[in-house]
Specification:
There is one protein chain. This protein is an alpha/beta fold. It contains ten helices and 14 strands. Helix 1 crosses helix 5.
Length: 329
């Protein structure tokens, strides 16, 4: 990784954005906050720089990345064009937590796309991410490839400290505070004849369909590979078990309160039980804190995490997706 140890730098500090942009322009890596999670960024037009992302994360090179851009015009630098579905989603949700997969322009961001003819594009709304993209544009950088700033398959980072803990002081981390949303963007494949929801997020399926003016389809064997869609992902070091509310209550009734190595995250379990951390009733509040809660449990050294399964309703789809993949580890 290029450059000496610098660890966490306040994004509001003098010269911080310029320092980060210079490192990116030179082919280095920077951890940057977005409204969803912190990303491990490299300039998307430099396949060598992007290769560092894969190597640093331990991410398979055939697992594509999301390229972050300032807006629609910058997206066109990477795409052969934008169809009606992509245009509608961009108009409704950019800047924001929705990623569109489009047909990739030949010769652009090949490493970020894992060699696929499609590319995932997102326009973040976080002020620090946007300031960095603006500064990078002055350096001739049209976009930044930026998957989550964590080891591949593990819990995503929602604070600067999380990102620094993952990779150590050699990585420049722009500290922009805790992420507002807490789980990754929704991903919609707009590269085919009909839009397909590949990964749910905080923006609900209903909101996406309202913007599209029609239904979203489910992925099939012809859908392109997309970030964060492996069966096992977002996993803490501890084993995570999903339980119904009744299973949770029954188990806690017979469990000694003095047991060690176990943590519980529940909406309905007795709140005074010493093992229980209360899960909010609001899905957005859970999304905001979920990865931080799992990281805190890991920091305590627990070996097993019991999580009460949230309601199976559209507003919980993004949280349920992350929990199911975390439990599959």
């Amino acid at each position: 990784m290029k450059g000496g140890p610098v660890a966490i730098v306040s994004a509001s500090g003098s010269g911080a954005i310029e320092q980060a942009a210079a490192r990116l322009a030179a082919g280095g890596l920077v951890a940057v906050p977005t409204e969803t999670v912190y990303g491990l960024a490299a300039r998307a037009d430099d396949d060598g720089a992007v290769a560092q992302i894969f190597a640093t994360k331990g991410r398979p090179a055939d697992h594509p990345l999301i390229v972050h851009v300032l807006g629609r015009d910058e997206a066109l630098a990477f795409a052969t064009g934008l169809n009606d579905a992509a245009e509608r989603l961009i108009a409704a949700f950019w800047p924001g937590p929705v990623t569109v997969i489009v047909r990739r322009a030949p010769g652009r961001a090949a490493a970020a796309a894992a060699g696929l003819p499609t590319l995932a594009l997102r326009c973040p709304r976080h002020a620090v991410a946007r300031s960095l993209l603006m500064r990078c544009a002055q350096e001739g950088i049209a976009g930044l490839a930026a998957p989550s700033a964590n080891r591949f398959g593990r819990v995503s980072p929602t604070t600067a400290a999380h990102a620094s803990d993952e990779f150590g002081p050699e990585l420049l981390v722009l500290d922009g505070g805790a992420c507002e949303l807490g789980i990754e963007s929704a991903i919609v494949d707009c590269s085919g004849a009909a839009p397909v929801l590949l990964r749910p997020g905080v923006v609900t399926r209903e909101q996406l369909e309202q913007a599209l003016g029609g239904p979203l389809h489910d992925p099939d064997e012809h859908s392109p590979a997309a970030p964060g869609t492996l069966e096992s992902h977002y996993a803490p070091r501890a084993t995570l078990r999903l339980m119904s509310s009744q299973e949770m209550r029954d188990a806690l009734q017979v469990l000694p309160a003095t047991i060690t190595g176990l943590a519980v995250y529940s909406r309905t379990a007795p709140r005074r039980h010493p093992l229980v951390q209360v899960m909010p009733d609001d899905p957005r509040a859970v999304a905001r804190e979920l990865f931080a809660v799992l990281r805190a449990f890991d920091a305590k050294g627990v070996k097993l995490i019991w999580v009460e399964r949230p309601p199976d309703t559209p507003d919980w789809e993004g949280v349920n997706d992350r929990l199911q993949r975390a439990a599959a580890h």
